[in-house]
Design goal:
This protein has four helices and 24 strands. It has 374 residues and is mainly β. It has three domains: 125 residues, Beta Barrel (Lipocalin); 85 residues, Lipocalin (Beta Barrel); 120 residues, no CATH class. It has an eight-stranded antiparallel beta barrel. The protein has an eight-stranded antiparallel barrel with strand order 9-10-11-12-13-14-15-16.
């Protein structure tokens, strides 16, 4: 049994090394990550032990028996052949050693994997996804950036911008929801980090995808699918001002599609709309990395009128340092009334980060731009 398990581990290691070699052959350290024809990536089921499963990603592999790690490692690939190296061993399930090297080969139209380790030969059969079971698989086009494309396979994904890797990784899913993990980052195109985790949700019809990483929200449309409908129109005017767009994480284009106020200024990280009545100077939207971070409504009315308006519309939370805090009915967004030192009475909207304490108001607004509309 131990020799068989060792042989199985070796096979997995070989597969992983094969994948790594494929990366090198396709153009440098990141080439394999972009190779949609890598035959090793996927889930492989042992032909000898029904409870042994080999998971292979773009450069690593992991062999489990009944859900417990046997061993894992890295691999280098060259076409359908690979060299595997063991980097971790569970001594309770395997007598392999860290540093052991084996070989692997994919055959049978990419459905059979043969692993040889220390003269022990083990075979695996690739697990096929049930038709229609995984709605994430496919090519997804960014709704915000026309040159950004997300390719999703059975267990891996890669995001490219104009053909260059931004970052990629692995994922697990259940139904229409998935958890994504970043395994490689191009620092020239992204400030994400290896190990970052995010979530993804695919619509019931499988045509739209929403991805969230560290509070940033991106939406995609499946290649060949129907683009999502535009945001709903603003609600009817209230007695003081219409509520600004609260889709934090959205793009500038989404905010402009929503707003029917007159656009006055557009900066790299801001949009300024003229107020809709004499009580509102401007409505300011602040962005970070192209994603909506906060809203600011700059008023031209008495503080009591603003307090009465906010008290009727939102739930009062409390006050601190002269700032009056409210929150929306879904308890996700704070609403802060305060005097900005340069632009006057303002109402700020943003997502709660930690409800155990009051949020810090934004200091990054372009006061000189806002003052021009006083």
């Amino acid at each position: 049994m131990n020799k068989k398990i060792l042989g199985l581990m070796t096979a997995i290691l070989v597969v992983m090394m094969a994948l790594y070699a494929c990366k090198k052959d396709s153009g440098g350290s990141g080439g394999g990550d972009n190779d949609p024809d890598n035959p090793f990536i996927g889930t492989w089921l042992s032909d000898d032990y029904e409870d042994a499963v080999l998971e292979i990603t773009v450069s690593t592999w992991r062999l489990e028996y009944r859900g417990d790690l046997m061993n894992s490692g890295t691999y280098e690939a060259n076409g359908n052949s690979a060299t595997l190296r063991i980097t971790k061993v569970n001594p309770d399930l395997s007598d392999a050693e860290v540093g052991d090297v084996g070989t692997a080969k994919v055959s049978g139209g990419g459905k059979t994997l043969t692993v040889t380790f220390d003269d022990d030969v083990d075979t695996f059969t690739k697990k096929e996804e049930e038709p229609g079971n995984n709605l994430f698989v496919g090519t997804w086009i960014s709704d915000e950036y026309e040159d950004a494309v997300l390719e999703v396979k059975a267990s891996t994904w890669i995001l490219e911008y104009r053909g260059d890797l931004m970052y990629n990784g692995t994922y697990t899913f259940k139904g229409n929801n998935a958890t994504l993990t970043i395994t490689k980052v191009n620092p020239d195109l992204s400030d994400a980090e290896v190990g970052d985790e995010g979530t993804a949700t695919v619509s019931g019809d499988g045509k739209t995808l929403t991805v969230i990483f560290d509070g940033d929200v991106d939406t995609f449309t499946k290649d060949g699918g129907t683009p999502p409908p535009p945001p709903p129109p603003p609600p009817p005017g209230d007695d003081l001002y219409r509520e600004p767009y609260l889709g934090f994480g959205a793009s500038m284009s989404a905010v402009k599609s929503y707003e029917d106020r007159t656009l006055s200024e557009e900066g790299d990280n801001s949009l300024v709309f003229l107020g809709e009545n004499k009580d509102v100077n401007v409505v300011y939207y602040g962005f970070v990395s192209g994603q909506l971070d906060f809203d600011l409504v700059v008023l031209n009315c008495a503080e009591k009128k603003a307090m009465d308006f906010l008290s009727e519309k939102y739930a009062y939370v409390g006050s601190q340092d002269g700032i009056e805090y409210f929150e929306t009915s879904d308890e996700t967004t704070y609403v802060a009334l305060y005097y900005h030192s340069q632009v006057g009475l303002s109402v700020e909207y943003g997502l709660w980060a930690d409800k155990s304490s009051f949020p810090t108001i934004k200091k990054s607004i372009k006061a000189d731009l806002l003052k021009s509309h006083k």
